[in-house]
Specification:
This protein has four helices and four strands. It is α+β, with helices and mostly antiparallel strands. Strands 2-1-3-4 form a four-stranded mixed β-sheet, covered by helices on one side. Helix 2 packs across helix 4. The longest helix has 17 residues.
């Protein structure tokens, strides 16, 4: 989990997408995240974390549903949401940074 700590304390805000490959809602989020990345450019980093490969982290963060997205700024989680969201809603959340 030390790598996770390094990830979320980066200078650039980080949107983390917890997903499972078998989950249809997670698959739906892929093009949405691409749109968000394009709109935000270097003002936001997006990282995808597979819940099946990162069980300890998932348990520590109490991820109960996928997709779950968390937004970190300078090491602090400032936003968390589960379920599918549209690109505009995600962009609006990240624009408050």
């Amino acid at each position: 989990m030390s790598k996770f700590g390094d990830l979320v304390t980066a200078d650039v805000p980080v949107l983390i997408h917890f997903y499972a490959q078998w989950n249809e809602a997670c698959t739906t989020m892929n093009p949405i995240l691409i749109d968000v990345a394009a709109a935000m450019g270097d003002r936001l980093r997006i990282v995808k974390i597979d819940v099946e490969k990162n069980g300890e982290l998932v348990e520590a963060l109490r991820i109960k549903q996928v997709p779950t997205m968390m937004l970190y700024k300078k090491g602090s989680m400032i936003w968390r949401q589960s379920g599918v969201m549209d690109a505009n809603s995600l962009i609006n959340v990240t624009k408050t940074l």
